Give the backbone structure.
Amino acid sequence: DTGVSQDPRHKITKRGQNVTFRCDPISEHNRLYWYRQTLGQGPEFLTYFQNEAQLEKSRLLSDRFSAERPKGSFSTLEIQRTEQGDSAMYLCASSPPGTGGYGYTFGSGTRLTVV
Amino acid sequence: QKEVEQDPGPLSVPEGAIVSLNCTYSNSAFQYFMWYRQYSRKGPELLMYTYSSGNKEDGRFTAQVDKSSKYISLFIRDSQPSDSATYLCAMSGGAQKLVFGQGTRLTINP
């Protein structure tokens, strides 16, 4: 296993289009997280899954954002009707059971540019 | 006011210097304190974590947590050009969500 994999690495889209990102976690990790990082800022929490259940969503996750993790394996994050303010790095992380907040492994992120 | 405050720098020091990075926080429920390193266009990687107050050392890196002052630090001894990166502090209250600082951009000059 080579770590957390995210696809695509970079996405350029026109305002108003829908985009979908994929995250493949480390196979034995049951928890999966999405964060958003804008230039010069630290990552901000978006949502988190334990197995297939979405357990927490941030207020940052507007109605245009939806995340899924079918069968508790890979996860997708979809943004509908993209806006220029959605331009950011979208980071996925996973962690094994029982590690609390310190067991994260992050992927390299998907950089979204909305033009 | 943000829950976690971190001086964004940038910070530039000569090779071999001791580097001190700091964060302050306001949420007394935080129990886990982490330092991540992030290279350009990469995801953060965990350097060190500390549970509750105290010090932890790992090679050239030392993490300190003072819960009474709500202040955490990361010290890098004998800094190397390869240490040049953005350093992020992060905290959690035992739940799964991490709260990050803004990140400090560090450059070690040969």
About this structure: Chain B has no helices and eleven strands. The CA atoms of residues 86 and 105 of chain B lie 4 Å apart. The mean pLDDT of chain B is 94.
